[in-house]
Every structure is written in structure tokens, then in C-alpha cells.
Design goal:
Number of strands: 12
Largest sheet: 7 strands, mixed
CATH class of the largest domain: Alpha Beta
Order of helices and strands: HHEHEHEHEHEEEEEHHHEEHHHEH
CATH architecture of the largest domain: 3-Layer(aba) Sandwich
CATH superfamily of the largest domain: Type I PLP-dependent aspartate aminotransferase-like (Major domain)
Strand order of the largest sheet: 1-9-8-5-4-2-3
Structural class: alpha/beta
Distance between the termini: 21 Å
CATH topology of the largest domain: Aspartate Aminotransferase, domain 2
Length: 351
Amino acid sequence: MGGLIPHNRPLITAEDRTAVDAVLSSGWIAQGPAVEALEASFVGLYCGGGACAVSSGTAALFLALKSLGAATGSIVAVPTYACSALLNAVYMVGAEPRVVDVLPDTFCLDPDALRAHAPDARFVIAVHTFGAAADVAALRADGQIVIEDCCQSLGGMQGDLPLGVVGDAAIFSFYATKLITGGQGGLVWSRTVSEKVRDYRQFDGRETYDPRFNFQLTDLQAALANSQLQRLDVIRERRAAIVGVYLAALPKILKSQRDLRAPGRMAQRCVVVAPNRTVRDQLARHMKAAGLECIVPVERFELLHRYLGLDPAEYPAAEKLSDTTLSLPLHLCLSDTDVARISDALAQFNP
């Protein structure tokens, strides 16, 4: 057995280093030309609209909500099987989160649960969980304002359209575990409110005063993220190839998140689903013994309804997912030998 294979690791190429070195050599490392170049890349990727790079994905969500009109008294529907950053952004804007259960196969927000448990929500955060496409059309069927959370799906396609282009705004994260990284950072893309986001981000040197905050991204972070953005197709193809090897080795007792091999899918994670918690925990121990770092993608205590002290019985799909899911290593630092080692361990699992 070789050394430990980590669950996630960012791949920093020679081209990435050259891009960052160019910023260091320029003498301008704060928000500047590299941030503008990153924003222009997103406008090109989305064939128009406007993009505003900011300091984190949480900042992006806060600014998207604020720019779209969310404020004190607004109700914002969020999936419970998601990062606590969603709650943080909603509370930061003064709104009230309405936590909704998810679909058991895609792990994305359940449109029927939305109508049943949050019919008064004016805003909906549609998380494309681990790269799976949330049903944005169904989530906005009653005229809701929808923010597509693409922090885990950048580069994913649904038909001919990139994920993020259908909603009222899309947000992205460049954190170290995301599909491209600047170490930290985020971005808002929208056809309608990107300039409002930019107005809030530009906190200093204004002719008139309004309360704002410094949510700026540095050129160092932007240069690293933009360098990686240029090879988005390669990232998608490599991740899809790794997922294909894993799924071919998956024992019959295990399932996977739906549509992992769908055309255009950007697989941010490869999450397998066991029939129960006992088998999931056996799988985790089996993989650990083989020197493979796997993680529970969302622990039970991390479910947003549990953070808010809500009745777990109202969220059966998310509760079961927290008990039965395990995320396998999936990143571009994996060699073919690493992938074979992981798939072999999967194939040998026999609870």
C-alpha cells in the first residue's frame, strides 16, 4: 500500500505560477487588472451579462441577495443539505431563512417541499449540489427570485447552457476545495444586478456615502483563479474520467448521486450512497485501512435544520443522506495509479 491519498488537493500548474508571478512582478497586488481579467473571462463564459469578483462565496451570496432586493422581512428558501454559509448570508442581509428538504437522488432542493414548506418564500437559493443540476425552472414556477449557487458546479452544462445562466444571479466560490481556486474568493454573475454588486464592493473613495464593506478580491487570487479557469474543459473531462472508473468498480450494494455521468456534468465530488449508516461506516473504515481519505460530505450535525433546532422528522431525505453518503477522492492531483488504487479498494468492499 502506498501513502495516504487525500480526499482533496488543488493542482497548481507551471502556468498558474507564471500568472501569479506576473502579478508579483507588476507591483500591483490588490484589486486591479487581474480581477478585471477574471471578470471578463466569466462574461465570456456566460456570453454576456456582468461579473463582479469578491472576497468569498459567502460574500457573493450576500451581495447577490442584497442587490436583488432581499432585506429585513424577506423570506429566503435554502436547502438543508448545504453549507452553513447559506444561513450566514441570509442573516447578514437581515432576511429570514426557510429551510427546505432535498431530493434523495440529486441532493438538490426539492421543488415539492419548497411549495409545501416555504410557499411564502420570495427568494430561493438553488444549490447545484456537488455539480448536480437543481431544477431552477420548477423552483421559480411561482415567480420566485432564484440565485443559482454554482460554487460546486462551475463549468457544468445543462444542454447547451452553462449552469448559472437561468436564474436571476449566479454565485461562485474559489475556495481551495472548489473546482478552480484562488485560495479564497468568489464572484457574482448576473444580467441585471452585477453593477449593484460592484457599487457595494467599491467601498472607498466615493462622492456620496452609503454603508458598504470591503469585499474586494486581490489580483494574486484572481490571477490564480483565472489561470485555472482557462482549462475548465480539461478539468471537466478528467473528473468525468475518474468518476467513470469509480462507478465501474462500485459494488452492487452501493449507489451514487444521480447523473454523475450525465453529458456536461462537472463532478465536484463523487458521492456514493450506502443502504444504511452501518454499511456507510464499514465502507469508510475499509477505505481508511487502504490509505484512502474519504469524508462524509455533510454530517448530520451540519444539516441546516439541525443548526436551527428544527424537527428532523420534517427533513427525511437530508437526514438519510447524512447517514448514508461518503465522498471519494476526486481531484486533478490523482494519478492513474491513484485512481486504480481507489477503484480496486471499492471493488473489494464486501460488508
